[in-house]
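Data availability (excerpt). The following record was deposited with the supplementary files.
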Amino acid sequence: MDRSRARVVGPRVLPTLVRYPVIPATAAAVGRPARGLFPLVVFAPGYLQCEGSYSSLLRAWASAGYVVAAVEFPRTSCQASSPDEADLVNQPRDMAYVIRRLLAISGRKHGPLSGLVDPAAIAVAGHSDGGDTVAAIAANTCCLDHKVAAAVVLAGAEWPPMGGYYFPKGTPPILFVQGDADNINLPSDSVTMYRADTTGPRFYLDLYGGGHLSPYEGHGSPEPVVAQTTTDFLDRYLAGQHSVGAAMRRAGDVAGVAKLIHGGHLPP
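Predicted structure:
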């Protein structure tokens, strides 16, 4: 529980489910946590969504060698008793709090997460309003957390009530993912961010016919393309696997399904 803002927004209870790499089970032993430092990805669900809706995508990242922590926000999750989308302005600080707590827990000598999180390799990812949250913590002067080394924005947008300004110098690498048939967060929202982000590496994954939920929640097309391309992006810009760049471009270029754009080029 985050009590640091109690006078302003009240205590913030932030249930967080953590997935992490495991050593596969054998006939002699059940699966157990892998040891060593792993990059951390903190995930923000969309409005009235919970982490379970994204389980396939989050498992893909964990299976690729990431500690994946999915936050459920107190007033915008599927469990919220009195939903309030305006509370989104408080969510970047929620994510920053979760990052601090996970680093502290990883630093303990004992516990299931002891010694698992690499403090120098932290990314944030989010969908819809969670994407707005991620854009703010990664790339808005209102809420920057300089521990964030990479970001994945799934069908997100700039959120004016945040204040500040977006994409200052030093913005980390960002992958914007957007369905071109999304009528909730419009493609123009993602294009606006992609065009404005001129300070570092940025990519735009254009999903042909993709809506607002199915590319990120489920198992059908184009979710596998999203899972592979985002994993490759994290491998390249969070885990430092420089050779993965070509694989990421191949994963994002699927005829009739998706196109990965970079270098300032715009989607068709």
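Summary of structural features: The first strand starts at residue 16 and ends at 19.
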